Amino acid sequence: MGEQKHKQNTKHNFVFGKKNYKLMFIGLAIIALGFILMSGGGSDDPNVFNPGIFHWQRIRLAPALILIGFGVQIYAILGNLDKK
């Protein structure tokens, strides 16, 4: 009988708050978008050069998005966002 009361009174405490988890998912989406933009651009024929491999979105945009995504992840983990 005492165990049932104890189980009913215990509240599950998560490590992070709701805002932290939202920011983590946003950061993961930004990182995934960066890796998607970085992929591709190869040539099917190894004897043919494809200049698309040096496109600005692969060289500058995609790595910047990945770094921004990691920054969002660090802020979401270390920041105390549910503090009122």
Tell me about the largest β-sheet: none
State the distance separating the first and last CA atoms.
38 Å
| Portion in strands | under 5%
What's the helical proportion of residues? Answer: 55-70%
The Cα radius of gyration reads: 22 Å
Counting helices, strands and paired strands, the structural category is: mainly alpha
Compressed to H and E, one letter per element, the order equals: HHH
User: Which term fits the overall shape?
Assistant: elongated
Q: How many beta-strand elements?
A: 0
**Total domain units:** 1
H/I helix tally: 3
List segments where confidence is low: pLDDT < 50 over at least 5 consecutive residues. none
- Can you give the mean pLDDT? 85
Can you lay out the helices and strands and say which pair or pack?
Layout: H1 2-9, H2 18-38, H3 56-78
Using brief descriptors, characterize the structure shown:
84 residues; mainly alpha
Structure characterization notes:
- There is one protein chain.
- By secondary structure, the chain is mostly helical.
- It has one domain (15-78).
- The protein is built from three helices and no strands.
- The protein has helices at 2-9, 18-38, 56-78.
- Helix 2 runs antiparallel to helix 3 (56-78).
- It is elongated, with a radius of gyration of 22 Å.
- The two termini are 38 Å apart.
- The relative contact order is 0.21.
Write a brief caption for the model.
This protein is mainly alpha-helical and 84 residues long. It has helices spanning 2-9, 18-38, 56-78.
